[in-house]
Design a protein that fits this description.
The protein contains 13 helices and 18 strands. The chain has helices spanning 16-24, 49-55, 76-82, 88-98, 102-115, 286-291, 320-324, 330-335, 345-352, 355-369, 372-377, 400-406, 427-432; strands spanning 71-75, 126-128, 135-140, 145-153, 158-165, 168-180, 185-190, 193-197, 202-205, 209-213, 221-232, 237-242, 254-260, 266-273, 277-282, 301-305, 385-387, 394-396. The strands form three sheets. Strands 6-7-10-11-9-8 form a six-stranded antiparallel β-barrel. A two-stranded parallel ribbon has the order 1-2. Strands 17-18 form a two-stranded antiparallel sheet. Helix 9 runs antiparallel to helix 10. Bound molecules: cholesterol (CLR). One of its GO terms (molecular function) is sterol binding.
Length: 436
């Protein structure tokens, strides 16, 4: 059965027949995940960031709404899940540990930590900034994982996530500190990521610095640099170094890692590139690694390799996995809480290539979001996460999937105020009053 396209505007008329057939095929639904975004309704038009900056010169920059053209049709919550594309590395890590190979376990965990960056290559657009209380669920039985995230604070902007896999749980929260340097932006993620295996072994690490270059002139690209320390509660620890960028570097994007035993002896070396692959060499023979350069070392074991790019990357350059993240099928729509990113109207319009409507909705939602600070000050609390009184991190309180089972979304507000179904809204009037 063919998937219905949601860009024809009549997604509300789902026939009972299609629902029941889909119910029967529910466990197979993932094999039908989409492989391309919908065809854009309007023709894409070019706007340069430079013209934006020029036109807004002298204005308070925080008051300038960027037109939707700079966005990709994914929210930051969905991008968090994108970092789990290579979750099979964690399944392998779990199995290795079960077989008593603690060393291979940490090596796979390290490869996973690097793989999360692969999707950031050649992605020139900004994700949507989720609204306070916005959520995103991802149920991917074909990967054996179930992910859930919520935007838990607006000032500072914090997102929390929780993922369950085969033999492991992964959670964390992220708060990006950003510094604007004119031609580039430096992003420093705060917060700790935790991985807990069912046998009690845990690992923790933090993300490295990301720099976004060529904001004004040239092609926008990002670069990840710094050190990442993966510490465990048992024997091994791993230090990963994401190479600093240097002018005319012939081998950029390199990552090198060293795994140490509890007594500090070096037991393995990792090398690779965050946009390509990661290899490892067991033992303390660093010379072998040096003489052969980076990832092509002979005798090195391949741990991870980036998937082939999608055949339909569009101008957002999404991977095949990323293309599936915002898909909204009629049967999924039935199950989602009103806070899910897939229901955000401006993002949906952008995905459909309806830029005028997308801009109007974005403006409306951003205007509403200005009240978020007041909401937080007057005691607003996240629905699914709670701040740990000891370490200040957000932990999932549970109950989301159970509530979904019963479709009981108490305490989940209609944060998008779905005006798309209200005929009174006139996008063009709203757009005209925009500052851009
Ligand atoms: C306004 C336009 C021109 C700028 C486009 C900026 C793009 C390249 C920026 C905006 C937000 C950025 C993301 C924000 C947060 C993170 C988490 C971090 O741990 C890895 C990098 C990653 C995933 C960034 C990658 C680059 C990114 C997608």
């Amino acid at each position: 059965m063919r998937r219905r396209c949601l860009n024809n505007g009549n997604e509300d008329h789902v026939s009972i027949e299609s629902l029941t057939t889909d119910k029967a095929n529910e466990d197979l639904s993932y094999s039908k995940r989409r492989t391309k975004l919908p065809e854009p309704v309007e023709k894409e038009k070019g706007v340069s960031l430079w013209s934006m900056i020029k036109d807004n010169c002298g204005k308070d920059l925080t008051r300038v709404c960027l037109p939707v053209y700079f966005n990709e049709p994914l929210s930051s919550l969905q991008k968090c899940f994108e970092e789990l594309e290579y979750s099979y590395l964690l399944d392998r890590a779990y199995e290795c540990g079960l077989r008593g190979n603690g060393l291979m376990r940490i090596i796979y965990v390290a490869a996973f930590a690097v793989s999360g960056y692969a999707s950031t290559d050649c992605r020139p657009c900004k994700p949507f900034n989720p609204l306070l209380g916005e959520t995103y669920e991802a149920d991917y039985p074909e990967k054996g994982i179930r992910f859930f995230s919520e935007k838990v604070s607006h000032h500072p902007m914090v997102m929390a996530c929780h993922c369950e896999g085969k033999g492991w749980k992964f959670w964390g929260d992220s708060n990006l500190r950003s510094k604007f340097w004119g031609q580039s932006i430096q992003l420093d993620p705060d917060g700790v990521l935790t991985l807990e295996f069912d046998d009690g072994e845990t690992f923790q690490w933090s993300k490295v610095t990301t720099t976004i270059n060529n904001l004004i002139l040239g092609r926008v690209y990002c670069h990840h640099h710094g050190t990442m320390n993966i510490s465990g509660n048992r024997r091994y620890s791993c230090k990963l170094t994401f190479k600093e960028q240097s002018f005319l570097d012939r081998n950029p994007r390199q990552v090198q890692g060293v795994v140490k035993d509890a007594d500090g002896t070096k037991v393995a070396t990792l090398m690779g590139k965050w946009d390509e692959s990661v290899h490892c060499i067991i033992g303390d023979d660093a010379s072998k690694v040096k003489s052969h350069g980076s990832h092509q070392s002979t005798g090195a074991t391949l741990l991870w390799e980036k998937n082939k790019p999608s055949a339909n990357p569009t101008r957002y350059n999404l991977s095949s996995f990323a293309i599936t993240l915002n898909e909204l099928t009629p049967e999924l729509k039935e199950k989602l809480p009103p806070t899910d990113s897939r229901l955000r109207p401006d993002q949906r319009h952008l995905e459909n290539g309806e830029y005028e409507k997308a801009n109007a909705e974005k403006l409306r939602l951003e205007t509403r979001q200005r009240m978020a600070r007041k909401m937080q000050e007057s005691g607003w609390k996240p629905r699914w996460f709670q701040r740990d009184s000891e370490d200040g991190t957000f932990r999932y309180i549970g109950g989301y999937w159970e509530a979904r089972e019963q479709r009981k979304w108490d305490g989940c507000n209609d944060i998008f105020g779905n005006l798309s179904s209200s005929p009174k809204l006139q996008p063009s009037t709203l757009y005209a009053s925009s500052s851009i």
